[in-house]
Structures are given as C-alpha cells and as structure tokens.
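Researcher: For the record, we're logging two predictions in this thread. I'll number them. Prediction 1 follows.
Model: Prediction 1, sequence and structure:
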Amino acid sequence: MTMASIWQTLANRLDRVQETGGSIDFWLRDDDAVEPTAALHRLLDLTDRFSVPVSLAVIPAHTDERLSRCLAGRPHVDVAVHGWSHQNHAPVTEKRQELGGHRSREMVAADLRAGWARLRALYPTAMVPLLVPPWNRIDPGLVAGLHEIGFRALSVFGPEEGAKSAALRVPGLQLINAHVDVMDWHGTRGCRPYGEILRDIDSRLDEIEKGGGTVGILTHHLVHDESVWEFLSGLFDVTASHAACRWRRVADLIDR
C-alpha cells in the first residue's frame, strides 16, 4: 500500500462519517515534557502550523522556568500533571509504576499535591486539572482522592469502557484516555508501521460510532524518529481541514 493510498483510506472513512452527519473529536497527548529541546520545538511548530492543540504531560520534579518561558507564547498548549518525578517504585517483577500501591496513599498523595502546586506556579494559565500517570498506570485505590487535590480528569491508555477503566471511574473525575500510540515500544522503538496506526484509529472510530468518545493520539516527542514526524504531518494534513474532524483542547473536553 502506498503512502497516498494509506492517507486516502483515512480520508474515505472520514468522508463516510461526514455523510452520516457525524463528527469526530481528536486530541493529542504528548508525554514526558521537561524542558525546551529541539524535538519539543519541532512538535510545537508542527501543531501550531496545523492549528492542532497539544496537551503536554509535564514531569513536575524536573521542569522549571525554561519550559514555562518557552510555552508562554503558545496558546494552543495545555499542561497536564505527569505524576511527580516519573520514578519507578515497583519491584523488578512488576511493570513500572510511580503511582502504584507500593507506597502509602499518603506518600503518593503528597507527591501529587507537590506536582499540582509546582505546575500551577510555573504554568498558571496553561495548566489543566488533568493527571497523566507515568507509564499510564495508577492504583485504583488512589483515584478516589484525586478530586480532593484538584484533579477533574484522569488520562491513561486504552478505551474508557471495560473492566479496567471501570476501576478508575469515580464521581467528579472524568476519564479522558489516549487510544492510539505511534511508538513501537517493544520493537524498533521508532514509529510503528503507518498501516497499523491507522488500523488502530479505524478501530477507535468503530468504538466511537457505537458509544461516543474521542480519538486520543499519544506521542513522546523526545524519542520520535523521522518517521513519526512524517506520520504526524500526514495525519494532521488529512484531519485538520476535514469537515468531520475537530482537534480539541483537553481543557475543552474536561469542561464538556
């Protein structure tokens, strides 16, 4: 399949959505932001060029005024709390977690309060009340206390429906997940094959047609290879101007 045919397949699917009077909300979540880098500037410039809002999951313990100054002139950027220090507290026999059940709830809550306060001070207008757990993992027993800290939404990876997500649903807290990851974490650690990514988008569109929701695209600017940048440029080119698509700020999704 050629590149042109890959993108045409997506355009055709969106055309069918438009013909039925529907529309699709996309949102972009980029994880592990800390400081201005060439890769971050490339992401910000690319999203600005296509008028695509981007939600940066920022690691509070490692960020400072340099990133704050960098984002000050970028009104299309929202800042979310990415845990505290992105430190793994799980044993080697388990998947990595910072917000797991390996420490007391009081210790984890203290970290999250510190993260909230630090990002609120550094990014007073850009910060949104969204928690993005490092590695997309959080102990369900911690979720009920997030609203008391100030969080109004939680974002992990995968569909919002199902048993796994049901354990994370509590009153007063929205679940706004990412659904499509562009990275091949277990293989090349570069971009996944475009056809695979677009099949994931197509599958997510099927889920939305049945039960509503958004298409959340997940990126990690610090580890993008050239193929990722080319994919994002192509995706934005197809979707940003299509009548059936809306790229949304996560702040708007939370308010909704």
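Researcher: Logged. Prediction 2.
Model: Prediction 2, sequence and structure:
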Amino acid sequence: MLIIHHWDTDGITSAALVAKALGLEEFENLSPPIGEFRFDERIRNAIEKADKIYVLDLNLPNEVEGISKETIFIDHHIQPKIRNPKVKQINPALNVGYAPSASFVVSQYFGIWNEWTALGALGDIGKKALEIPKVRELLTINTEEALRLVQLIDSNYVVMDREDVEKAVKVLLTHNLRELLEYEPWVKKAEAIEKTINDAIGSLELRNGFAFITFESSFNVISKVARKAVWELGYNGAVVVNRDFHGKAQIYFRISPELADKIDMGKIISLLKEKGFNVGGKREVLGCICEKSGVDEVLEIINAHLR
C-alpha cells in the first residue's frame, strides 16, 4: 500500500485518516519534493512496486492520469475529471461541490471522523474552519491549541524537511494530541521558524507605509513574514526578499485588503511574466522565485508600480 500526500497539515492528516480507516499496520507514505507539484523518481519507483495507491490532497491530475495501478485519488481542489479507468477520483469539486479540506473528503468517503479531520481543515483555511460546526464538534482541544498543533505539523515542511513530513503521518498515528503539543522535534522546529520570522521583521525598513524586508534563510517563511507585517503589524503592504533560499531568491509582495482596488497586482504579475520570471499570485499577493541576479529587476518593476 502506497500513500502519496501533500506536505502540509491537510495532506498529513488525510494520510493518517486513510491508514486508520483501513487499519493499516504496514504502508509506505511519500510526499513530493516540498514546493514542487510533481512526482519525482523516488515516487515513481514506489508506484512501480505498489499494489494499490492513494493520492491525497495533491492537485496533480496529469500525474495521476498516468498511473497504471489501482489508485484512489482523493482531493478537494478544482480539477478535470480523470479518464484513466484504474483511477477512482473522489472530489466534491467535480460536481460543483465544496469541502474545506481533503481531510473532510477522506472522512466522508470512509465514514471516519476525528480531530485529524478538523486539523486538516484548520490547516487549509485557518480560523475560518471554526465557523464549520463539524470542526467545532470534533475538536477536544481549545482553539489556541488546535492552531498551535497545525503550526507544529507544518513546521516540517516550512524547514524543508521532506523526511520528517513523511514521518509525521506515523507520529500522528502513535501520539494523542496532548502529546503532540509537546512533541520535541516539532517544538524545536517551530521555535527556530519563529526566530527566523522575528529576525526578518527586525530588518524592516518603512517607506510610505510599506514594509521592505530583506533576509536570508533556508526556511520557507517568506509568506509568513509578509503576513505578519501586514496582518499583525498593520502596514499597508510588505515587499519581502529572501536572497538565499537553497541557491535561489524568493520575492513576496502582499498588500492590505484596503489597497486591493488601488494597486493592480495582476498587472505587476503580467509584467514580470513578460520578462520571463516564474511568478504567480492573486488580488492581494505576488510570489516569485528567481535567480539571485534577478532580484533587483523584480524589485524595480514592483517599486515602479508603487511609485
């Protein structure tokens, strides 16, 4: 049995729910390379050896379409219908439905509901999940503890530790939630992440209500730094640069909701794409990963638009 899952809390809890629902004692679970939506050689080799495969919380229909083994594909993202007859696709979005997380779809499919279901939803949509009665019903720990637990589980992918992401499934299966809140490997990671975020905020330069932040870290915290500057500290926007992220540079630009009608994020994204940059985003955010030598050009385009 092979379980392939996303690297975040929703993917990890979904994998644990499948293992529990099927009563699995022996199984292999793998995550794609963190931040890369693809099956690498390691996953492809595991697929070749597996008898049955579950793919959870990974919006990779093209990859799943090519699997030649019996596969259950459980997800909640908008995606095309799989034509491969060996794949059973379980996704409410195919019928214009909705689920807050893959963990909810897994629970509905197997009829197994527990706190992992709720944690998956909290991981995907944050505090909004608490507006869902089923989430509140399932949680036996308080809101602060539940959000902390999501932070602890996510710490594995934030520090880019793929091996510990995969180990996290069996950690969930063998510890209760109270134990997990004190689980030392995750706590240490979370502390290191928090220090990195605070150190980055410490380099903040303020210009006309906008925070400009530059730092270097192997941790994938750039979006968290920007959210803290805008959501917690109340700046109009944040331009954040990680100048050395595993040999590349990351740039993240977030604006407050009040400025979404005044700053055309779509136009900035289009301009950067025209220049050949790997960039994406939506109404209030822009994310870009590029060669270190390209940082100044990206910043100039953002700054020119702000001016």
